[in-house]
Amino acid sequence: MSKPLPNSIYARDVEYLLHAATNARKHEETGPIVIDRGEGIHVFDDQGNKYIEAMAGLWSVAVGFGEKRLADAAYQQMLKLPYYHSFSSKSNEPAILLAERLVNMSPDKLSKVFFTNSGSEANDTVVKMVWYFNNARGKPNKKTFLARVNGYHGITMASASLTGLPVNHRDFDLPILPVKHLTCPHFWRFGLPGETEAEFTDRLAAELEQTILDAGPDTIAAFIGEPLMGAGGVLPPPAGYWTKVQEICRKYDILIVADEVINGFGRLGTMFACEYYGIEPDMLVVSKQITSSYQPLAAILFSDEIFQGIADNTAKIGTFGHGFTAGAHPVATAVGLENLDIIEERGLVAHAAEMGEILQRELRSRFTDHPLVGEVRGVGLIGAVELSADKATKQRFDPPGKAGAYLFARGHEHGVIIRAIGDQIAFCPPLIITEPEIMDMLDRFALALDETWAFVR
Ligand code: PLP
User: Fold this and answer.
1) What integer pLDDT is reported at residue 155 of this predicted model?
2) What is the DSSP string of 45-100?
3) How far apart are CA 347 and CA 331, in angstroms?
4) Which of 154, 155, 222, 418 could join 159 via S-S bond, C-beta 3.0 to 4.6 A?
5) What is residue 1's predicted lDDT score, i.e. its pLDDT?
6) How many whole angstroms separate alpha carbon 44 and alpha carbon 53?
7) E strand or H helix that includes residue 212
8) pLDDT at residue number 123
9) What is the distance in A from the centroid of ligand 1 to the CA of 291?
10) Whole-angstrom Cα distance, residue 184 to residue 211?
11) Can you tell me which atom of ligand 1 is nearest the CA of 230?
12) DSSP annotation of 219
């Protein structure tokens, strides 16, 4: 990309927009890629270039781009009731129906829903709900959250505090709440020399229990985790990890919060990743694929026990003093309902399981032995290839991200939008992807990978 021409749409972008997760000085030199439209698994930029969206946007667009049924659902709802709120006992039908549907499709223990507009707001809300609940049940010291290094829970003040990525803390004066970040459950990177996967799981479980005992169990409120970590690099946990985490949390009356903002609605080939890993959460956070991100929406599902505690407190102090202007939005929830209809009618969860097997098989068979690749990993339709400067020693690149950034750019040249998380390359295509499209995506990636090898070797 070259410096944008004066007055072009690119120059105006540079003049007026601050971009998320972007080096603003570099952006002044390169300008943006303006995405103009999308269809199926593809997007097109305003120059007419076609790309496979191997990340479904930001792990989002389950049903693909250009799904007219979602546009119609939004349009019809806008004509009927474009907006209403959920404060002071007001409600609207799509929000009620979506809440009912989410409860019926989710793990048994979850019986109520609170809607927000984003995953970050949802996780901030989780923190507030847990604190409110613990105050209500006479456990006011139970406030600390347990999270993990490389976990991602969002970027608002509380959710970014839970996030375990330095880039989301640095120079933002975060974390601001009591949180302890435990070892990242990624065996390949964090396993010790000679340690087996089972020993790694045991070590992480021991660390969890010791952390609780050191702080005092009456100070630890909740454990929050993505069942399979996404934005930290697509990191499936070691075998047995979630069983042990749950045993320990239950022993010390610590709530379990499953953040399925990426995992939820079929990504791992099951409706929720909690099913895949046998997790019974007290709270479940979902977003993104709930509307295929055609509308901003997130939801917290939570147990009756938590609801009863909160409800009693509202009776005592007068209200639940929390909520968003656009929470339980009728257009977003109507789109969510239609999106879930599409996922069900087209059997997209089973399809994701089937396509996921192909994706995982092909990623491993084609790239495990590549000289630039340290590890290939993933479950279902989410996967990653981690680049390493030295395959044998798992050495990182200097500077970190050098190879990933190059590969990311080469990918664009070959018509595939992947995500480079440092030197970890993520794949998370729309659930509708077909076998030939997976092959096409990986062929393009393979070209970019070989060019990156030529660049760094
Ligand atoms: N939680 C997880 C697991 C996520 O992956 C994300 C976003 O990627 C969030 C929370 C934050 O969601 P949002 O970007 O909608 O605020």
Assistant:
1) 98
2) ETT--EEEETTIIIII-TT-B--HHHHHHHHHHHHH-S----STT---HHHHHHHH
3) 24
4) 154
5) 64
6) 10
7) helix 197-215
8) 98
9) 14
10) 14
11) 5
12) G
Burial of 388 (0-12, 13-18, 19+ CB in 10 A): buried
Give the residue, by CA position, lying nearest to ligand 1 atom 13. Answer: 119
Q: What is the DSSP string of 145-181?
A: EEEETT----SSHHHHHH---GGGTTTTT---S-EEE
pLDDT value of position 386: 98
Distance 201 CA to ligand 1 centre (A): 26
Distance between CA atoms of residues 386 and 122, nearest Å: 30
Atom of ligand 1 nearest to the CA of 260: 3
pLDDT at site 4? 87
Token digits of residue 310:
């909160």
Residue 327 CB burial class (10 angstroms; 0-12, 13-18, ≥19): buried
- Choose the residue to mutate in 121, 257, 261, 293 for probing ligand 1, maximizing ligand atoms within 8 Å of C-beta: 261
CA distance 178 to 186: 24
Does this model's pTM top 0.95? My answer is yes
395, 164, 403, 56: CA torsion to nearest 10 = 140
231 lines ligand 1 (CB under 6 A): yes
pLDDT the model gives residue 2: 73
State the distance from the centre of ligand 1 to the C-alpha of 57, rounded, in angstroms. Answer: 13
| CA 62 to centroid of ligand 1, rounded, Å | 15
Q: Which two tokens stand for residue 269?
A: 């080939």
Q: Cβ(52)–Cβ(440) under 8 Å?
A: yes
- Tell me, in angstroms, the distance from the centre of ligand 1 to residue 402's CA: 25
- Which ligand 1 atom minimizes the distance to the CA of 287? 15
Give dist(CA 296, CA 163) in Å, integer: 21
Ligand 1 pocket check for 230: Cβ under 6 Å: yes
Q: Is 422 in the pocket of ligand 1 (CB under 6 A)?
A: no
Residue 348 has a pLDDT of 98
Is any ligand 1 atom within 6 A of the Cβ of residue 261?
yes
Residue 134, pLDDT score: 98
ipTM given for this complex: 1.00
Q: What is the pLDDT of residue 6?
A: 86
Taking 70 as the pLDDT cut, the residues of the chain under it are 1
Strand, helix or coil at 256? strand
Per-residue pLDDT, 93: 98
Two structure tokens written together for 60 = 């989002």
